[in-house]
Design a protein that fits this description.
The chain is mainly α. Helices cover about 70% and strands about 0% of the residues. It starts with a helix and ends in an 8-residue tail after the last helix.
Length: about 300
């Protein structure tokens, strides 16, 4: 029985991966790409300096905790997340009352689908700092990925109400509403869009969601208006991720898979859209395997 299930899952994964070699069934082709981010000389020098600093034996625990935390942030910014997690855990063992460390560990737990651990980490962040700027949003996203949509909505609506002009708060609320109340989700999105100031770039993604922009127009706008490679990479990472979310929601696994890969392509490691693209691919694979028909009589 286990062997049969593994075979079915593997076949499904192969079919999905094979499908990604073809273009998604959408109205755009040849998607724009930025030059992927690489570790800078400054980051590498800073890591070397921190490594030298950690060899000293005259640092107290608070200082060591801060140094490990800063090295963890550096490792995280260049995609070395396992090393970053080790640094964050070491920092926390030296100084347990750090809300920022609990917050980023919560994000890591979410990425690896350890949702109960993520909830606990974000709870700890908020206990230590009730006004933490990201923990409530991050807990809401973790609850969303954990399938606890009503609780996710409570966190994300409260986060949205603190700043109704932040497009990403509106987008994540919409994604949760698609799971809670799909028949009214777009109307709510449109109302939140209408009352906003529409100043941040992210509102262009909302415009695509409400039908004011096509995907092709959004990508053309990003390409034309990006002032440098950094801006191009940032905006493409966001656009491809949120485009993928809609294809994924509509069970177009082939298009969603390609778009999640494109969201990863710029190496914008610190963006939540990059962080959760691998989680989304894992979820997509699981959903695709379940979607494959099982032959009658198998047990």
């Amino acid at each position: 029985m286990i062997a049969n299930r593994l075979t079915i899952a593997c076949v499904a994964m192969i079919m999905v991966l094979a499908g990604c070699t073809a273009a998604p069934q959408s109205n755009w082709t040849n998607p724009p790409l930025a030059v992927p981010f690489q570790p800078t000389i400054q980051q590498q020098i800073q890591l070397a300096r921190i490594d030298q600093l950690l060899k000293r034996n005259d640092l107290n625990d608070d200082t060591l905790a801060q140094v490990y935390y800063e090295r963890g942030l550096l490792h995280d910014s260049i995609g070395l997340r396992d090393l970053a997690r080790l640094d964050f855990n070491q920092s926390l063992s030296l100084k347990p009352d750090q809300p920022d460390v609990f917050n980023i560990l919560g994000v890591y737990f979410t990425q690896s689908a350890h949702f109960d651990a993520a909830y606990e980490a974000f709870d700890s962040t908020l206990e230590l700092n009730i006004g933490h700027p990201f923990a409530q949003r991050n807990r809401g996203i973790a609850l969303y990925y954990g399938g606890r949509y009503e609780l996710a909505h409570e966190d994300l609506i409260a986060h949205y109400q603190q700043n109704v002009n932040d497009p990403y708060r509106v987008i994540w609320l919409y994604l949760v509403d698609l799971e809670r109340e799909p028949e009214t989700a777009k109307d709510k999105l449109k109302r939140r869009y209408d009352v906003s100031d529409k100043e941040e770039w992210g509102w262009q993604i909302v415009r695509m969601y409400v039908g004011e922009l096509t995907e092709s127009e959004l990508l053309a706008q990003i390409t034309a208006e990006s002032e440098d490679n950094d801006m191009l990479a940032h905006h493409l990472t966001e656009a491809y991720f949120y485009m993928a979310k809609l294809y994924h929601y509509n069970n177009d696994f082939q298009s969603a898979l390609m778009l999640y890969k494109l969201a990863l392509a710029g190496n914008v490691y610190e963006f939540v859209e990059h962080r959760f693209s691998l989680l989304e691919i894992s979820r997509l694979m699981a959903e695709a395997s379940v979607a494959q028909p099982v032959e009658a009589g198998e047990s």
